[in-house]
Structure formats: structure tokens, C-alpha cells
Automatic annotation (TrEMBL):
UniProt source species: Fonticula alba
Membrane topology: Lipid-anchor
InterPro entries per record: P-loop_NTPase, Small_GTP-bd, Small_GTPase, Small_GTPase_Rab
GO biological processes: protein transport
Subcellular compartments: Cell membrane
Sequence segments annotated as region (Disordered): 181-222
GO cellular component terms given for this protein: plasma membrane
Alphabetic keyword roster: Cell membrane, GTP-binding, Lipoprotein, Membrane, Nucleotide-binding, Prenylation, Protein transport, Transport
Entry superkingdom: Eukaryota
Protein's name according to its UniProt entry: Rab family, other
GO MF, any single term: GTPase activity
Recorded family membership: Belongs to the small GTPase superfamily. Rab family.
């Protein structure tokens, strides 16, 4: 598997992590991008991002993953990044039923601000917790995911359970949608820093490899 910070890649895919504050979005990103974990909770201020390059079907895929703040006061800032996202990971905490109930609100936000064709997955995080601390059953979460027609994963950033699988599955689904099923989209050549290509999809072929945070722009719907 490829490591992060490599400058050579075939395609750029932009992902977004959303969900209530404290559900473990930053921990999931830290585990996936850096293979590390911190038990100390520090709320994300606004938005942060990391880069990791993986290999899928013989192609090097650069994942630019945005971690959004879950607090309401940052909502205006973070929704600006929905439009450029090709995939969204919606995270809730298996020990927090409120975060699960709020999945519907987050899905509504996706419908309002993201491209209609954006790939989405639902993640129930902290699956390593004791059974008596768990407040959301697998059956409940799977039923909700089925209602929205999306995949569901149970993860643990702490114990590194299903984290890589969730990110890679989403990236693979996006690759299938934008590249395998629509080869012409790859010919457009998107700007790595803009969040959208000529067709509205960020499918960057050997473009700008800068890891600096891009500025969100209004773009066509993907």
C-alpha cells in the first residue's frame, strides 16, 4: 500500500468527514492518514485536512480528506466544502444516541450543500466500547443506512478496526462512479487546488501535487 506525502499519483479524490462534535472524526482521520491515535479530545476549529495516497486497481489515488468541526457555530464555514467533495463519511458515536438521531439532520445538510451524486457512507464509531456502553445497535444503524441507500461501517479509531476498509471502500466506489464508468471525466484535468474539474469532478491526472490547503470555490455540481 502506498504511503502519504508521495508526490506521484494518477487521480485525486476529495473526501469530507462530517458528524456531531466528539464522535471521533479527527481520530478516524489521524488513524487512517498517520496510523496513530490520541485519547485526548480536542475539538476541530473550523476545518482541517490530511493527505494519504493509496493504490486501487493498479492506480495511485491521492486522497485529500477534510475534517470538519461538528459545532453549530462553524457550520457556515464547513458547508462551503461540501460542494467540492466527491465522497462524504458521516460519522456518529455508537455510545451517543443523540449523534445517531442527528444523522438525519446531517443527511439533510448533504442534500442542501453537496452534489447530488456524491458518494456517502455511514460510520458508527467507537465499536470497541463495552456492550453496556453501546446505545445504538448494529441493526438500527444498518436499517438507517439502508433507508438512505448507503453503506454502513462500524469502526474503532482507537483499536484500528475497519478504518482503512471504510476509507478504501468509499474511494473505490468514487473511482467506479467517476473513472471506470465515465472515462471521459478523467480527460478534463481538474485543478488540485480548486475542488472541481471541467466536468465538476476532481479527477486530477498528474496535476498540482501541493499539500497546501486549497481555498473552497463555488463549482459545478459533480
Amino acid at each position: 500500500m502506498s504511503t502519504s506525502r508521495n508526490t506521484s499519483y494518477d487521480y485525486l479524490i476529495k473526501l469530507l468527514l462530517i458528524g456531531d462534535s466528539g464522535v471521533g472524526k479527527s481520530c478516524l482521520l489521524l488513524r487512517f492518514a498517520d496510523n496513530s491515535f490520541t485519547p485526548t479530545f480536542i475539538a476541530t476549529i473550523g476545518i482541517d485536512f490530511k493527505i494519504r495516497t493509496i493504490e486501487l486497481d493498479g492506480k495511485r489515488i491521492k486522497l485529500q480528506i477534510w475534517d470538519t468541526a461538528g459545532q453549530d457555530r462553524f457550520r457556515t464555514i464547513t458547508t462551503a466544502y461540501y460542494r467540492g467533495a466527491m465522497g462524504i463519511l458521516l460519522v456518529f458515536d455508537l455510545s451517543d444516541p443523540v449523534s445517531f438521531r442527528n444523522v438525519n439532520t446531517w443527511m439533510h445538510t448533504i442534500e442542501q450543500h453537496a452534489c447530488g451524486s456524491v458518494n456517502r457512507i455511514l460510520i458508527g464509531n467507537k465499536c470497541d466500547i463495552p456492550a453496556d456502553s453501546r446505545k445504538v445497535s448494529t441493526e438500527e444503524a444498518e436499517a438507517l443506512a439502508k433507508e438512505y441507500g448507503i453503506r454502513y461501517f462500524e469502526t474503532s479509531a482507537k483499536e484500528d478496526i475497519n478504518v482503512t476498509e471504510a476509507f478504501r471502500t468509499l474511494a473505490s466506489d468514487i473511482k467506479t462512479r467517476l473513472i471506470d464508468n465515465n472515462p471521459s471525466s478523467a480527460a478534463g484535468g481538474a485543478d488540485d487546488r480548486a475542488g472541481a474539474g471541467k466536468s465538476g469532478n476532481t479527477v486530477d491526472l498528474h496535476g498540482d501535487t501541493s499539500d497546501d490547503a486549497p481555498t473552497p470555490k463555488n463549482s459545478k455540481c459533480c
